[in-house]
What we know:
By secondary structure, the protein is α+β, with helices and mostly antiparallel strands.
Amino acid sequence: MTTTLAPATPGAAQRRRRAQRRKRLVAWAFVLPAALLLGALVVYPVLFSVGRSLFDASGTRFVGVGNYTEMFRDPATLTAIRNSTIWVVVAPVLLTGLGLILAVLTEKIRWATAFKLLLFLPMAVSFLAAGIIFRLAYEHDPDKGVLNAAVVAVHDTFTAPSPYPTARPREDALAAGPGGSYVTPSPAAPGETVTLGFVGIAPGDVPDGAEPAAPADARDDALSGVVYLDFVPGGGGDEGQVDPGESGLPTMAVEAVAADGTVAASTTTAADGSFALTGLPDGPYTVRLPAANFAEPYQGVSWLSPALVTPAIIGAYVWIWTGFAMVLIGAGLAALPRDALEAARMDGASEWQIFRLITVPLLAPVLTVVFVTMVINVMKVFDLVYIIAPGPVQPDATVLATQMWLVSFGGGNDQGLGSALAVLLLVLVIPAMIFNVRRFRRSQS
Length: 445
């Protein structure tokens, strides 16, 4: 026996259609404000930029693709493309790698939460503040830049700085020699003395332990002399002569150079500036004070030079975003099946083998998301480049975002070319965005 359902009445079908229309209207009522906002803030600017890129700087003459061809002929734009390529290749790889390593290591330490919080703190700092921080940290003067202060401290630990970088001789006492050294204008022989006066040294810069200078005593078996500060505090005294109150210059390296250019003897000055070059055969010798006595102190690394400015800014970017990458990868690491890791350990696998053959493959989806997200971010980087790079090296550090701003508003006043750069930046970012969206959809299906 079969039962048949009565057909729906026309009134019921109409009520269902009205209900569906009401649902669609309610949905559109909720979606419309967001759609209008999206259109005003995203769609309209994109369409306007595409249209504006087809006109000249004034916006009155149609030039077609002229701005795009000019863009790729402009050396500044080519530099920006090169630097953006460096950013895309280096920064996401560093961030993903560091995030993975730190996420794995924090699982092994006791205070993992505090460590993660400490690494994540830079994310709370604005790019403007971070740029100012690193601009100061990268200062070339070791008294201002913390990085160069550390570099100089390490350098000076292993290589002693020159004792008298500002010293210069009296005009008649010494002549300029090769490589920044000073030599006596006329040769001297054993049994003679030389008096070598210097100026340009502040009394407070004379090394501790320096004693008052005295005229050198002649010795038959040595070429002797004195190196001193030819300046009497308070004034007075005669130039070229050792006067009471003048200080000797200790630890000054002194060499006796034979006629053939070889160094026959060497020594350093005593606390009163005196020296004696012994063991010299008879003959004339030139007394030389090597350039190492007067070399400028080591000033560290020029972090913001044209060659290093882009890596330096990438370092600041990595400092900010490493915590973000570590937290995302750490969340993926926490979701890994522990039985697979324990089974591998029971089978005798080392921690490196577990990391390389199990952990990394299982984390591949998370690592891909982090990498692509960082690629999108670095394509749009602007604040750090604009703030950290000094004005003279700004052209060497420029990326597409900064070049777009400089061409449009930073003095170029060519919004046609600037719009073309904006369109180029959009075209480069879209593939990464599409890839990321597809991965999210696949992960949810």
